[in-house]
């Protein structure tokens, strides 16, 4: 490698891959490592908001990214008890605020698969799978990482390290940074089906379903075959076993609650996972930084977690590119935490918790008021735009620039 400043990125998921590409484009030499043998293709985040599309465009990969996904202009809120549409929001309302007045439904592994070939074609970039971080030391002028590979133990050094290695982050644990927050008592069940809900009930590609007994999320993704499929997300109460929650009859019962059918739904995938609302006590310790799920996790209602992680990646790449002498740059480096941790708490944590509470509200008076407010927001142009500016994280991105 050359005399460029070096960065080790731990975690080759979407946040790590984007962080690596952004840093390369800003003149850094990058080593990207992941303990897994290959890219994780399990169903994960899929909604990419206008604010994030702007950032993907800045990396030069927006056309390819849109090509492998579905463009979704609208999203809905439905009242399951009445089986009626409460509010439909139109991202085209933001046409004067962004070049991307829509979301793109693109599975997160597709973003990684777009970025990795670019990285592998760049000089001063080393992409390594089946490579685990097993140790880390920091000195005044470097980060020293101990790696375990198929060939054995290896030690490499760099100027900085970015931990983008997920909610169970090895980097965060090595730094002994607390992951503050809580875990929701219920688990989330994800069912993927080939049934076309849009054709059947006229819903948008993203629909949030309010129900005091069993709320739901329903959204369409492209699939690797680009033929389209639908994911449905439901809460699973603590008293139901994992085996029962994943059973065929349980899956059919839940989908039939959304839309009763005589024929069984064809299920392509099912998954059950725990959900957390947590934020790391610090996003930086000396020369090592946290980004994405290693620094913050939240429930998926609203599709904000991955988007916020990509925002971390771009903010961090920009911050590191501004650093001259490390010893005199503490204020600049700490700005990354001031911006990203603050905005995650004020926008993402608050909004995702509010989204969940809105859908699961049991008190009939409060529930009626929530749905009425959604309908009024959708009907009023000023409130409509304000709602979208916040839900798309455009307001978050704009607000970050005010934090010095």
Describe this structure in words.
With 404 residues, the chain is α+β, with helices and mostly antiparallel strands. It has a domain of 227 residues: 3-Layer(bba) Sandwich (FAD/NAD(P)-binding domain), CATH 3.50.50. Strands 6-5-14-15-16-13-17-20 form an 8-stranded mixed β-sheet, with helices on both faces. The protein has a 6-stranded mixed β-sheet with strand order 8-2-1-12-19-18. Strand 10 and strand 11 form a beta hairpin. Helix 1 runs parallel beside helix 4 and helix 1 runs parallel beside helix 9. The chain is globular. The model has no long low-confidence stretch (mean pLDDT 95).
Cα distance, first to last residue?
34 Å
- Counted by DSSP, the helix tally is 13
- Which percent bin holds the helix content? 25-40%
CATH topology of one domain: FAD/NAD(P)-binding domain
The total count of strands amounts to: 20
Query: How many strands, what sense, and barrel or not for the largest sheet?
Result: 8 strands, mixed
The geometry reads as globular
- Order of the strands making up the biggest sheet: 6-5-14-15-16-13-17-20
CATH homologous superfamily caption of one domain: FAD/NAD(P)-binding domain
């Amino acid at each position: 490698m050359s005399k460029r400043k070096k960065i080790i990125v731990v975690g080759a998921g979407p946040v790590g891959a984007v962080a690596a590409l952004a840093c390369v484009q800003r003149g850094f030499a990058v080593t990207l490592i992941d303990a897994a043998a290959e890219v994780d293709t399990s169903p994960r985040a899929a909604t990419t908001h206008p604010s994030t599309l702007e950032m993907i465009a800045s990396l030069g990969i927006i056309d390819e990214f849109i090509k492998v996904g579905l463009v979704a202009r609208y999203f809905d809120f439905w009242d399951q008890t009445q089986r009626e549409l409460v509010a439909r929001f139109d991202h085209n309302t933001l046409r004067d605020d962004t070049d991307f007045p829509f979301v793109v439904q693109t599975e997160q592994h597709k973003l990684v698969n777009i970025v990795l070939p670019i990285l592998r074609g760049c000089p001063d970039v080393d992409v390594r799978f089946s490579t685990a971080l097993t140790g880390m030391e920091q000195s005044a002028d470097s980060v020293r990482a101990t790696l375990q590979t198929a060939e054995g133990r290896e030690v490499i050094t760099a100027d900085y390290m970015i931990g983008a290695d997920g909610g169970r982050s090895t980097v965060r644990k090595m730094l002994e940074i607390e992951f503050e927050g809580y875990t929701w008592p219920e688990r989330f069940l994800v069912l993927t089906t080939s049934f076309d809900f849009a054709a059947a009930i006229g819903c948008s590609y993203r629909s949030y379903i309010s129900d005091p007994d069993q709320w739901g999320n329903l959204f369409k993704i492209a699939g690797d075959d680009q033929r389209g499929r639908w994911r449905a997300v439901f809460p699973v109460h603590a008293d139901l076993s994992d085996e029962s929650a994943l059973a065929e009859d349980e899956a059919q019962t839940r989908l039939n609650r959304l839309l009763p059918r005589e024929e069984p739904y064809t299920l392509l995938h099912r998954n059950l996972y725990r959900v957390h609302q947590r934020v790391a006590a610090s996003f930086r310790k000396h020369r090592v930084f946290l980004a994405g799920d290693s620094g913050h996790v939240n429930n998926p209602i609203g599709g904000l977690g991955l988007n916020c992680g990509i925002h971390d990646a771009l903010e961090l790449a920009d911050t590191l590119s501004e650093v001259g002498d490390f010893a005199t740059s503490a204020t600049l480096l700490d700005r990354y935490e001031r911006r990203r941790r603050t905005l995650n708490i004020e926008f993402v944590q608050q909004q995702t918790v509010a989204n969940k509470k809105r859908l699961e509200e049991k008190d009939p008076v409060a529930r009626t008021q929530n749905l009425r407010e959604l309908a009024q927001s959708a009907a009023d142009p000023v409130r409509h735009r304000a709602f979208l500016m916040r839900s798309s994280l455009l307001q978050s991105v704009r607000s970050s620039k005010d934090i010095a």
